[in-house]
Write the structure tokens for this entry.
Amino acid sequence: MSQEYTEDKEVKLTKLSSGRRLLEAMLILCSLFAIWLMAALLSFNPSDPSWSQTAWHEPIHNLGGAPGAWLADTLFFIFGVMAYTIPVIIIGGCWFAWRHQETTNTLIILPFPFASSVR
């Protein structure tokens, strides 16, 4: 009474196009940048040297280093507490681009993550 298990589905392996590889690489880089930016914003210290603060021989407390301190200070100056939403928006745009990568043009979706909703 042994029965043989067979699968009726055919598995089709498809090659990744260069556009899709580029999209995935850009999404990974954008996600890593958003994580770095969130770490820089969360570890912001007003005494770090930045464009609005001069500190001489002070250690940098920001997890993003000197570029993180400068960027966090600039974003807080321009956007205030809403700067915390920028990494969330970047991650949301990456997720949106990943979910809709087959239905939209990849060259349009990279710089404008919500451009596919406007047709």
